[in-house]
Design a protein that fits this description.
Elements: H1 3-6, H2 9-24, H3 30-40, H4 49-56, H5 67-82, H6 94-101, H7 103-111, H8 119-131, H9 135-161, E1 169-170, E2 182-188, E3 191-202, E4 209-212, H10 213-222, E5 226-232, E6 237-242, H11 243-247, E7 261-264
Parallel strand pairs: 3-5
Antiparallel strand pairs: 1-2, 2-3, 4-7, 5-6
Helix pairs in contact: 2-3, 2-4, 8-9
């Protein structure tokens, strides 16, 4: 059965109906369950029951409710069985997956509650990204996400204090290739302006951060609208640096040599 037919709400909903009716009528065969579903509600007919059976039989029997958990399990099974190309894009960020997965896949992810920024959704995406990374990258990802969550909380509180009726946007969860992690806001000469934040986190003492050439180019491009958050995770202490404060630590290219990343230990 092809991918488009399995990764579709007509199949997911059919699988869920079969599972819920099976729980109430365990003595019935699958074919009898489908017949029962169809006899109860006429609007159940458009569902793809053949694809639904293929999904439902692969999901552990204890998974019934909530609906989002069942749909998430269906997506997990699909990824495990088929290793789709789009899943390999997860390390680059959620948007890269959404662009490749197609409309039906996006609808399935949305119905599974995986397009939000709550802990359940971000943990799922991080796990998918981790499956396509090495162990070291997984540890760094977890450390980075902790810092980003701390910065989101910090920015939410700051915006509220400063009377800005907005919430910070967790950009990195959707696309970690843009050169910053969080889009926030600030007042400037009485007007609301964007503030772009690159978040760094460390448990080292003294605190340090690794900055890539791309991140620095982005910082230079936006200048005063850009800032760095450096979190010491051991103490949850935040230090904020401007672009100009970081500039003194940036190396220069020499002859045929170009720097790609630099370790900075700002004072």
């Amino acid at each position: 059965m092809n991918e488009d037919r399995i990764l579709a709400m007509s199949a997911f909903e059919a699988a869920y109906l079969i599972r819920t009716f099976r729980e109430k009528n365990p003595e019935l065969s699958t074919s009898d369950l489908i017949a029962t579903v169809r006899s109860v509600r006429a609007d159940f007919y458009p569902h793809d029951y053949d694809a639904g059976v293929a999904i439902e039989e692969r999901i552990p029997p204890q998974v019934v409710t909530p609906l989002e958990a069942f749909f998430t399990a269906a997506i997990d099974v699909f990824i495990s069985d088929r290793a789709p190309v789009w899943a390999r894009l997860a390390p680059a960020g959620r948007n890269h997956v959404l662009q490749a997965i197609g409309v039906n896949g996006v609808q399935c992810l949305r119905s599974a509650g995986l397009l939000g920024s709550d802990a359940r959704a971000t943990d799922w995406w991080d796990a998918l990204a981790t499956a396509n990374r090495g162990e070291r990258d997984a540890r760094l990802l977890a450390q980075g996400r902790e810092g980003e969550r701390l910065s989101l909380a910090y920015e939410s509180a700051r915006l509220q204090r400063e009377g800005i009726p907005r919430s910070p946007v967790w950009v990195a969860i959707d696309d970690n290739t843009v050169g910053y992690d969080i889009l926030s806001y600030a007042w400037h000469d009485g007007s609301e302006v964007n503030r772009l934040i690159e978040v760094k986190s460390t448990s080292a003492s003294p605190a340090r951060m690794i900055l890539s050439r791309k991140e620095w180019k982005t910082a230079e491009q936006y200048g005063p609208a850009f800032e760095f958050h450096l979190w010491n995770l051991s103490s949850e202490m935040l230090t904020i640096y401007s672009v100009e404060e970081i500039r003194a630590h940036i190396p220069t290219d020499n002859c045929q040599g170009k720097w790609e990343s630099v370790e900075i230990r700002p004072s």
